[in-house]
Amino acid sequence: MRMHASREEVDAVCARIEDFGYKIHAIEGEERIVIGVVGVGDVTACLESLEAMPGVEKAVRISAPYKFVSREFRSAKTEITVRDVTIGGSEFVVMAGPCSVESERQILESAGIVAKAGAKLLRGGAFKPRTSPYDFQGLEVEGLKLLDRARRETGLGIITEVMSDRDVELVAEYADILQIGARNMQNFALLKTLGKCGRPVLLKRGMSSTVKELLMSAEYVVAHGNPQVMLCERGIRTFETVTRNTCDIAAVAALNELTHLPVILDPSHATGKRSLVPALSRAAVAIGADGLIVEVHPHPEKAMSDGAQSLDPKGFAQMMKDLEPYIALWKEARVAETAAVV
Ligand code: PEP
Ligand code: MN
């Protein structure tokens, strides 16, 4: 719709769309309203009719198979606000914490460490997807309660994984952001449930998934009612064995062209090695990611999962400090980009 189109004009357009037998999936924006419609078959007649209506700026066919998450649908970046932090806006946001919540002491200590170094959200898995059934599976509800404690003590928002559609309601009670793990990127029952969870979602790329498949999975969540989705590159499987996974760093740039959703990089799972995390984090800032999700443990050598890739408190503080000049440049670039889009 044109800037400041009237309520009547919007209603008339919606009514015309319904006359054509199409379903309105989303109405977005305040100043400028964008009406999202999904239809099958030849939509030319509908497009032409809408284009002639008062208040309509243009009617466009979105060619990508992922509609609502595509840049064609929305040119400005989606901003996701969690407590007092906005992801996808003018700040580079760092989420950090241990792979798993292990004990009260461990998570409170971790929270203090990452908050002090400048992280804005605390990560920590309560439900853990482990390759072996004999490995630590997470503290589950008890872990969620400990995360809640850590939030109350530090003010940090919480991001934690949900593995099953059965647990979405429970995890959403405690978490500020629901993390969907790489192994669940195409768990469509779970993705549909997230549409109604009322919380932002961080969707990790499956280890053998393409960028397009990642976008289609994000489309599931948005099409089912939740536009608050951010994407995460965490490395994919290749023949390379020096790193745990192969970070598809170019995917971050590609995603920034293809979608308006924020993009987060996970340098911990992407490399599997603590020593490589700072370098990859710099790359994430330079290439224009919106933030990082990093594993940090008070005593990595004692971690119950992913110790080898977890930074220790000193290492994390040093990395955050070393990122500062890069983040300053990132901010300049972000201001210029935002001005160019609007
Ligand atoms: C994690 O974040 O600890 C995790 C299990 O990540 P991924 O789903 O990317 O393997
Ligand atoms: Mn982990």
Tell me what the structure shows.
Helix 8 links the parallel strand 10 and strand 11. The strands form three sheets. The protein has an eight-stranded parallel barrel, surrounded by six helices. Strands 1-2 form a two-stranded antiparallel ribbon. Strands 3-4 form a two-stranded antiparallel ribbon. It is 38% helix and 15% strand. The model has no long low-confidence stretch (mean pLDDT 96). It is globular. The chain is an alpha/beta fold. The structure holds phosphoenolpyruvate and manganese (II) ion.
Describe the structure in brief.
This protein has 342 residues and is of the alpha/beta class. It is built from 11 helices and 12 strands.
Characteristics of this structure?
globular, binds phosphoenolpyruvate, 342 residues, alpha/beta, binds manganese (II) ion
Helices, by number, come to 11
Name the overall outline: globular
**Which residues form runs of ≥5 with pLDDT under 50?**
none
Overall pLDDT score: 96
Strand content: 5-15%
Strand line-up across the major sheet: 5-6-7-8-9-10-11-12
Q: What is the tally of beta strands?
A: 12
**Helix fraction by DSSP (H/I, runs of at least 4):** 25-40%
Tell me the series of helices and strands, N- to C-terminal: HEEHEEEHEHEHEHEHEHEHHEH
Distance between the termini: 15 Å
Bound compounds, each kind once, are: phosphoenolpyruvate, manganese (II) ion
Coarse structural class: alpha/beta
